[in-house]
Design brief:
Order of helices and strands of chain A: HHHHHH
Number of helices of chain A: 6
Largest interface: B-C, 99 and 108 residues
Largest sheet of chain A: none
Oligomer: heterotrimer
Number of strands of chain A: 0
Radius of gyration of chain A: 18 Å
CATH topology of chain A: Four Helix Bundle (Hemerythrin (Met), subunit A)
CATH superfamily of chain A: Cytochrome c oxidase, subunit III, four-helix bundle
Distance between the termini of chain B: 32 Å
Structural class of chain A: mainly alpha
Number of domains of chain B: 1
Strand content of chain B: under 5%
Structural class of chain B: mainly alpha
Chains: A mainly alpha, B mainly alpha, C alpha+beta
Order of helices and strands of chain B: HHHHHHHHHHHHHHHH
CATH class of chain B: Mainly Alpha
CATH architecture of chain A: Up-down Bundle
């Protein structure tokens, strides 16, 4: 998983570089300053899901299946909320401000970067849900703690990427 | 004991219908079989890309030739480059790594056998997808034709405006898919090497092949991914109306160049480091001495890995970067020559004072040493930016990198074939045919690639389907073409050798070369489980210790 | 010899049965072996003479090739048909050649030294069949030697870098004198557009520039732009190449020392007809250059002798792509044709500028340059004839 994270980090780095390179270079269209609203709430959701998954993992190690189930579910809900928030923001950008991926350089780089991250969140949620199903079927116990830990590493990575994306898009890019 | 195992395996194999054998191979997760699958795959594409090269050489035999149209020629050089790099050299190197690393570190298989199989089939799919572009071209209406944008696919030539149809998409998607396969293999190799070494095998006791594979895999992780990212961006441009590389909307053509070469330069180190690994295993055995300066070899390779991430823009000296940027990349390019050159000296030091046996693997390694030296030196010339301003994009560069890829890397790959074919198949390759292959190839190689430097110096750019007569390029191109035919014949000799020897070669036994690493301690071919019991090692050359108990390496480690 | 002694003295060990060998040291072998050795020695000498001979042959061949190339390049050719980087005629190309010679001499020296060592090692340390049972001294390394062959390359690198950086700065950061001629070069698929903003001239594919007297330099500064994909301007005898990249402005300069016609071509793959995007640079004396400028600024032939042809030009799609000064043809997609007949070639050097070729180019461009963006105009023979006659008036 560490290797995969290294490789994925390289992909994100390149796309972040492209984003930063094109800041302020759009020839037309809405600018970040005009249309972006900082998604504080949804960011808090995603970042707290890192906490919940961490505690979920620990609970599993200690054999507290109930706590594990609850925290795991909470992680999925928080992640889902984040995705919902992203969707909401995109809806607003597209229908209220006319910003699509082909509008201008800002549109292209924004949707690509945030979209790639959202894709990773989606894949993560899918995997978390699979583990949830296994847990409901009673097959997840302390023996699986190491594997669950690997998955939570991936989730932490996704959150870490969001910190970078957030900073680049909503703080620096404006 | 080992001959019993072989006998049982052969008896089993003889009784099975071929469908079962095919099924076993297609569903295998055994690193040895996957290694062989990679190697076969690479050999098939070597033939195909070789034919593409010969087509180009026939077209360029004399000025204003019309053997093929410009459209076909442009597809040829694009496909030749893409195929050779992604579907010949990378798979063959991954194949050898897959086969050898677990055996050399005393493990039973790779860390993630199913990921291993998945990675292979992803790579295979990528190659088939790329070549489907030929079929899907004029056959299926609107499906496109083989890509003709060059293997670097520079923007904005790859945008919808300049590359309508789907040919560029075949290039993009095929490489994306096989890129994920390569990343999978990189992850697998790192995990295997770091966590599955046998007892006693500290990192400082690993065979150099394992060390160099580790560095190569690390490079794979961080340099193939920029290409994948750039290709995703290209797909966004081509399909979703994005503007990453759309110069009409303010996008940047040079951004693609940066991203591509951030991949492209470390990529060539990914190709050459395993070649170094083969040389570092073969030269000591045939000089009858340990590698000279093992820690420095490791250190130099790690150094090369890191520095290689900082030299990429020496492929872009002509794009108009300012003088400070150009000077920076000159510096890093020259600096990377130091650890690379050191390795030549270490191999020289290994041979010095030894008792060199001129078997075919060693012949190829000696060819490699001379040719790698020359290729590195022309690389230094090209690293001097002003010189590069004249020679970039010319046949001098083409000669330089073919000197590296064919003269250095392919020679090491041939050496690896002759060295490890006995281990993989239980039969020796024929020495006389091997020597014929070597000498024919050397002659053809030098005819082609020595002379190829000169048209570059006389102003001949690359990627041109024809040229004007009277510029002094005509005779030289003819000589280059003749050499390419000789290389083709030599390769046929090689293939014939492999086929004949597989069925009729001398039986190899466990250790035909009197070598010192763990793979020679098991039968040829090894049993599926590799080792009857996991060995414990006490030095870098465990078999030397066993053969020379009065004077083991472990006293000197 | 010193090296071998150093190797042998550091970290080496031997078994009782081992043979010490190496230049300058005594061989400690038993008697029987000596006799057997001398018998085999003759046979081996013969065999390995062949191997050594071949290796030296390759080295000699390579050196010979390079030497011959150098010789060929050094012989001056009157009409510059061979665009060799070894025949510079302008300061940037000169500087590059000087740097190249310096770099070449260092790399040649490195090659000779290392190749000699390799050849020596291969010849001297060959294994003899007689002592196949004994292993040579197992040497693991030597810190001193490793240090030496790290430090020396680093020094070489520093020297090369400094020499290179100087030339980079000299060429790229050269100041533009007031007397410099400015030309904008716009790359198209698959032809070159040249604009002289100060002189109000627009032409294509064949660049005319004045020779530059070192006492009163009149260099030409090129501004490089692209209308579509990447191209590269390469005339080896006048300067290194610089790319033309869309949405980017690059600059280069040259100050040719003598008159003549210098050849080059596009050096960055730009599509199907990249191969036939040729360049011709005519370096002219100040008088000749002035004459050319005057001719280019002349209004286009107002004789109206070829009215029929002119009408064909103006009523078919020609004027969508081409411009002719003084008419209502102002297309920019293709070359400006105002002074078409002042050029020696058409289609960016793909064909001589003759009546037959003009006809062929208009009716069937694929016959000359398959894949060029000039469409086949589908004219009747009569229309084609008058059109070409009209074009021939565009002096």
């Amino acid at each position: 998983m560490a290797c995969l994270i290294i490789a994925e980090s390289a992909i994100f780095t390149i796309i972040v570089v492209a984003y930063l390179f094109y800041v302020g270079k759009s020839l037309t269209g809405p600018t970040p300053r005009e249309v972006l609203e900082t998604p504080i709430f949804y960011t808090i959701c995603l970042l707290s899901s890192s906490l919940t998954i961490h505690f979920a993992s620990r609970s599993l190690e200690r054999g507290k299946r109930g706590a594990f189930l609850g925290l795991w579910l909470l992680t999925i809900v928080l992640g889902g909320l984040f995705l919902f928030g992203t969707g909401q923001e995109w809806h607003r950008l597209i229908y209220e401000h006319g910003l699509t991926i082909s509008t201008n350089l800002f549109g292209t780089t924004y949707y690509s970067l945030v979209g790639l991250h959202a894709t990773h969140v989606t894949v993560g949620l899918l995997m978390l849900s699979i583990v949830l199903l296994f847990c409901l079927a009673g097959r997840v116990g302390p023996e699986q703690a190491a594997r669950v830990d690997v998955l939570s590493m991936y989730w932490h990575f996704v959150d870490g990427v969001w910190v970078v994306v957030f900073t680049v898009v909503y703080v620096l890019g404006r | 004991m080992s001959s019993d195992v072989m006998a049982i395996q052969t008896a089993e194999a003889a009784g099975r219908p071929w469908v079962q054998t095919l099924h076993a191979w297609v569903t295998t997760v055994d690193h040895k079989r996957l290694g062989i699958l990679y190697i076969f795959y690479a050999l098939v594409f070597l033939g195909i890309a070789g034919i593409e090269a010969i087509v180009m050489r026939i077209q360029l035999m004399h000025a204003h030739n019309d053997f093929v149209s410009p459209q076909v020629f442009n597809r040829m050089f694009t496909m030749h480059g893409t195929t050779m790099i992604f579907f010949v050299v990378m798979p063959v190197l991954f194949g050898f790594a897959n086969y050898l690393v677990p055996l050399m570190i005393g493990a039973r298989d790779m860390a993630f056998p199913r990921l291993n199989a998945f990675s292979f089939w992803l790579t295979a799919l990528g190659g088939i997808l790329l070549y489907f572009s030929f079929v899907g071209g004029s056959g299926l209406y609107g499906a496109g034709n083989a890509p003709d944008v060059g293997w670097w696919a520079y923007a904005p030539l790859t945008s919808r405006a300049f590359s309508p149809g789907h040919s560029t998409d075949y290039w993009t998607v095929a490489l994306l898919v096989s890129g994920f396969g390569s990343i999978g293999t990189g992850v697998n190799l790192i995990a295997t090497i770091l966590s599955m070494r046998c007892p006693g095998m500290k990192l400082s006791r690993m065979p150099l092949l394992a060390w160099l594979t580790l560095v190569m895999s690390g490079l794979v992780l961080i340099s193939l991914t920029p290409l994948s990212a750039a290709q995703l961006m290209l797909l966004v441009d081509r399909y979703l109306g994005g503007h990453f590389f759309d110069t009409q909307a303010g996008g940047s053509a040079t951004l693609w160049m940066h991203f591509f070469w951030i991949f492209g330069h470390p990529e060539v180190y990914i190709l050459v480091i395993p070649a170094f690994a083969f040389a570092s295993e073969i030269i000591p055995v045939f000089s009858r001495k340990p590698i000279f300066g093992y820690p420095v070899m490791v250190g130099a390779t790690v150094c090369i890995g890191f520095v290689s991430m900082s030299v990429w823009a020496h492929h872009m000296f002509t794009i108009g970067m300012n003088s400070s940027a150009n000077a920076f990349f000159v510096l890093t390019t020259m600096v990377i020559a130091v650890p690379t050159g050191i390795k030549i000296f270490n191999w020289l030091g290994t041979m010095w004072g030894g008792k060199i046996q001129f078997k075919t693997p060693m012949l190829f390694c000696i060819g490699f040493l001379f040719q790698f030296l020359i290729a590195g030196l022309t690389g230094i010339m090209l690293g001097a930016a002003p010189f590069n301003w004249q020679l970039s994009g010319s046949y001098f560069v083409v000669a330089h990198f073919h000197y590296m890829i064919v003269g250095a890397i392919l020679f090491c790959v041939f050496a690896a074939f002759y060295y490890w074919f006995p281990k993989m198949t239980g039969r020796m390759l024929n020495e006389s045919l091997g020597k014929l292959h070597f000498w024919l190839f050397v002659i053809g190689f030098h005819l082609t690639f020595d002379f190829m430097h000169i048209p570059g110096v006389l102003g001949m750019p690359r990627r041109i389907y024809t040229y004007e007569p009277g510029r002094g390029w005509d005779t030289l191109n003819l000589i280059v073409t003749i050499g390419s035919f000789i290389q083709g014949i030599a390769t046929l000799v090689f293939v014939a050798n492999m086929v004949l020897s597989y069925f009729q070669g001398a039986k190899a036994g466990n250790d035909p070369w009197d070598a010192w690493t763990l793979e020679w301690s098991v039968s040829s071919p090894p049993p599926a489980y590799n080792f009857a019991s996991i060995p414990t090692v006490a030095s870098r050359r465990p078999l030397w210790d066993r053969k020379h108990p009065e004077d083991p390496d472990s006293h000197y480690d | 010899m010193v090296v071998s002694i150093l190797i042998l003295s550091m970290g080496r060990r031997q078994t009782d049965e081992q043979t010490l060998s190496g230049p300058g040291l005594l061989k400690l072998t038993t008697r029987g072996e000596k006799e057997a050795q001398s018998a085999m020695a003759e046979k081996h000498k013969a065999e390995w003479r062949v191997v050594l001979g071949r290796a030296m042959g390759i080295v000699v061949l390579l050196t010979g090739i390079l030497f011959a190339a150098g010789l060929c390049a050094a012989t001056p050719k009157p009409d510059n048909p061979i665009p060799s980087i070894f025949e510079p005629q302008s300061t940037p190309a000169d500087s590059i050649l000087h740097l190249s010679r310096f770099v070449l001499s260092i790399t040649a020296l490195i090659f000779l030294v290392v190749a000699a060592l390799l050849t020596y090692a291969v010849a001297k340390f060959r294994g003899k069949a007689a002592d196949a049972q004994r292993e040579p001294a197992q040497v693991y390394g030597s810190t001193q030697i490793e240090l030496a062959w790290t430090v020396i390359p680093i020094l070489i690198v520093v020297v090369l870098f400094l020499a290179t950086a100087r030339v980079i700065h000299a060429i790229q950061d050269a100041p533009k004198p007031a007397a410099a001629l400015e030309v904008a070069v716009i790359g198209h698929q698959f032809w070159w557009e040249f604009r002289y903003p100060a002189l109000g001239i627009v032409t294509a594919n064949e660049l005319h520039i004045p020779v530059s007297d070192p006492a009163h330099p009149t260099p030409t500064f090129l501004k490089l732009l692209s209308a579509d994909t990447d191209h590269s301007f390469w005339v080896p005898q006048l300067a290194g190449k610089t790319d033309l990249i869309p949405n980017r402005v690059n600059e280069m300069w040259m100050d040719p020392h003598r008159t003549g016609v210098f050849l080059g071509q596009c050096a960055q793959y730009c599509g199907t007809q990249h191969a036939k995007m040729l360049l011709q640079v005519s370096v002219e004396s100040p008088e000749d250059f002035e004459a050319w400028v005057r001719a280019q600024k002349q209004p286009v032939n107002q004789n109206e002798t070829e009215i029929a042809g002119k009408r064909v030009f103006e009523t078919t799609a020609c004027l969508n792509c081409h411009a002719v000064a003084g008419t209502n043809a102002t297309g920019h997609f293709g070359p400006d044709l105002s002074h078409l007949m002042s050029r020696h070639t058409i289609a960016a050097g793909a064909a001589e500028n003759t009546k037959e070729n003009l006809r062929l180019w208009i009716q069937n461009p694929d016959a000359i340059k398959p894949g060029a963006l000039m469409p086949a105009m589908q004219l009747t023979d009569a229309d084609l004839e008058v059109l070409v006659r009209y074009l021939e008036t565009l002096q």
